[in-house]
Write a structure and sequence with these properties.
The protein is α/β, with parallel strands linked by helices. It has two domains: 52 residues, Spermidine synthase, tetramerisation domain (Spermidine Synthase, Chain: A, domain 2), CATH 2.30.140; 216 residues, Rossmann fold (3-Layer(aba) Sandwich), CATH 3.40.50.150. It has a seven-stranded mixed sheet with strand order 8-7-6-9-10-12-11, sandwiched between helices. A hairpin with a 2-residue loop joins strand 4 and strand 5. The chain is globular, with a radius of gyration of 17 Å. The N and C termini lie far apart (49 Å). It binds S-adenosylmethionine (SAM). S-adenosylmethionine binds next to strand 5, strand 6, strand 7 and helix 5.
């Protein structure tokens, strides 16, 4: 008998992968968590039925959500990640030579445990000497930590459940206050094909607080539509131009990709200009 897992990316579109083994499937305090072994993408983590990461393509997302800001900031020493409980973004952050401390604030400790149990390539970051792991709601943490981070990365789930607050203008204001005077914020802002409303919400919300706001893109095969967006808010530096070129061990990110990622197709530009 064949087993398939399907993420309903829209009410009319499903993305299906053949499953060879179900490794975990349970309801946590916050969401439904599943880890399955797929034939095409290796191990896959799903939260509330939505693909979060897979062994075969995790590097695109994790490199692109981290290294653009890390290489555009001249001294990215103190970095905060909100969400990102699988550890992939933390791995990229602590691997950057400019970073002194990478703090990860994840609301659901079962996501961290699933990574420790099934994703050795991601969870290796948790034991890195520069890494600090805090199990808490990220919206509370930023309110209590003022003017102390160079970069804040919001590696969140889709805007449902506990992540809804992570897409609000109030939260972006709190992040602004948690950053130093030349800090940068980067958020994952979903698919331009299927989630133009989320992009608008993130872009406009960030623009209300940050003088520089830019959108960039990357190709991620297991995310809805395969084309993914990230939005940066910056207090001082232009995120389009890298000032350092760390990309050792990267499979997707390099300085040319950095600059090209900000060149937007017309339909994407219109989403943020409207
Ligand atoms: N790469 C992923 C994507 O775009 O699908 C995101 C991966 S990461 C697993 C997302 C994490 O954000 C989840 O583990 C979730 O528990 C966490 N999260 C959601 N809301 C949060 C909050 N308010 N504070 C901290 N973490 C939160």
């Amino acid at each position: 008998m064949e087993l398939w897992v399907t993420e309903y990316q829209t009410p009319a579109l499903g993305f299906s992968c053949k499953v060879t083994q179900t490794l975990r499937a349970r309801r946590t305090r916050f969401q439904h968590l599943a880890v399955v072994e797929t034939e095409q993408f290796g191990r896959m983590l799903l939260l509330d039925g939505m693909v979060q990461t897979t062994e075969q393509d995790e590097w695109v997302y994790h490199e692109m959500i981290s290294l653009v800001a890390l290489n555009a900031h001249p001294h990215p020493e103190q970095v905060l990640i909100i969400g990102g409980g699988d550890g992939g973004t933390l791995r990229e952050v602590v691997g950057h030579p400019g970073v002194k401390r990478g703090v990860l604030v994840e609301i659901d400790e079962e996501v961290v445990q699933a990574s420790r149990d099934f994703f050795p390539e991601l969870c290796c970051a948790f034991s890195h000497p520069k890494a600090e792991l805090i199990i808490r709601d990220g919206t509370e943490y930023v309110k209590e930590n003022q003017a102390c981070f160079d970069i804040v990365i919001v590696d969140s789930t889709e805007p449902v459940g506990p992540a809804v607050k992570l897409f609000s203008p109030e939260f972006y204001r709190d992040v602004y206050s948690s950053l130093k005077e030349d800090g940068m914020l980067v958020v994952q802002s979903e698919s331009p094909f299927f989630n133009a409303d989320v992009i608008k919400m993130a872009y406009q919300g960030i623009k209300q607080s940050f003088p520089i706001t830019e959108l960039y893109l990357a190709s991620i095969p297991t995310y809805p539509s395969g084309l993914w967006s990230f939005t940066i808010g910056s207090k001082r530096y232009n995120p389009v131009c890298p000032v350092s070129s760390h990309h050792q061990g990267c499979k997707y990110y390099n300085p040319q990709v950095h600059e090209a990622a900000f060149r937007l197709p017309g339909f994407v530009r219109r989403i943020i200009e409207d």
